[in-house]
Amino acid sequence: MARRPKTEGTEDRREQIINAALRVFARKGFARATNKDIAREAGITPGLIYYYFADKEALLQAVIEIHSPLHLFEQLEPAQWDAPPPEFLRATLLQALDIIESEQVFSLIRTVLSELLHGAETPLLPGLFLPRVIDVLQRYLRLQQTKGALRAEISAEEAAQVLLSAMMGLVMRRQLLRDASVLRYSHEELVSLVLKTILPGLLPTG
Amino acid sequence: MARRPKTEGTEDRREQIINAALRVFARKGFARATNKDIAREAGITPGLIYYYFADKEALLQAVIEIHSPLHLFEQLEPAQWDAPPPEFLRATLLQALDIIESEQVFSLIRTVLSELLHGAETPLLPGLFLPRVIDVLQRYLRLQQTKGALRAEISAEEAAQVLLSAMMGLVMRRQLLRDASVLRYSHEELVSLVLKTILPGLLPTG
DNA sequence: TCATATTAATTGATCAGTCAGTTAAATTAT
DNA sequence: ATAATTTAACTGACTGATCAATTAATATGA
Prior knowledge:
2 copies of one chain form a homodimer.
Chain A: H1 13-28, H2 35-42, H3 46-52, H4 56-67, H5 70-74, H6 85-100, H7 103-117, H8 125-146, H9 156-175, H10 180-183, H11 187-202
Chain A binds a DNA duplex (30 and 30 nucleotides) through residues 1-6, 13, 34-36, 44-51, 55-56.
């Protein structure tokens, strides 16, 4: 086989390799994924990888770049800033949860996480979008405090930190530990769980 | 050099290798840690590892077995079951946090986590002690509900899940993502943060 | 002396990365 | 149109490095 036709609609080789690499990386981790694995998954031969990428590291960078979920979090800016806390928080947390636990995003997290664990100074992918979510939550909480819809005594920053950490803890227990006691919930139920426990402390007493 | 004297107080070779392996595994991950690394760290030659362990996998198992923090969590059974919620929860969560973030325990978690991420069916180490903590929290919450010290409407199980998930999320953000906005807190402050946000929702309205 | 502990040298497997050579598509010349 | 030429895409065998694991030789303490 040689040069393939420039058929439209077909993904190009580069993308094809990147997508195959994403799957293999997610399955076996970057260190354990061999070029042979990736080539087999992509339906090509190992040598071709080096036609499109300088080395394995560059392939990883390309995978991260292409599949970065950052743009997904750009959409997080919620429409209803003036919705009451229960509605707003339910919608926002659910949206964030759907994004993070999507196949696309979590495959990537799996890959980066092993690197992250051991001294790699890969741009801390999750470190990029967590602040984004924190920021949205925090701004909303502050806004609602001025409106009197949330208790003034609590710190908006701290409440946002705890809300997000709780969600993140749940995701980790599901995706990393496969904790059955948490896997049994749907996304909606998870958000309810968190809000049922945390919201009452945030709302004005009444 | 050959056989070393049986001096008391000195750790024996087996332990010495296990401890060196723990450090190297934590630093580089199991897959990337070479026997040469481990041997250098232990001050021996690579071949000797195979005098004490069948293979690298067996060494990992030994590391896990020896450094398993399970016994630490056995001590978690708290003394003051009748302490009021703020005190009890503060003390218990702080204790759990101290254990998990100890050098010894988290090195091990780092090591197992990379394996866990990619299809290894290593006995899910963290899956062993999380239920333990959940259980303690849940039993306490229920007890205090019967005493009227906690709201009856909330679910003890769900509250325990959220409390633990919040703590776990914070630990992950600190240890995996090195999130500065969370690293700046001391253990005491982290527990305060969580309780300040979550407790008010659990206590009877007053 | 003799079982035990340790080393140094070695083996075979595997892997990332290279490269000379092949093929089909694209381009140009006729 | 179509043959000739060029070029981009691709292959697969190879290389050197590295690694886990083995083993023969050897040193040491009992």
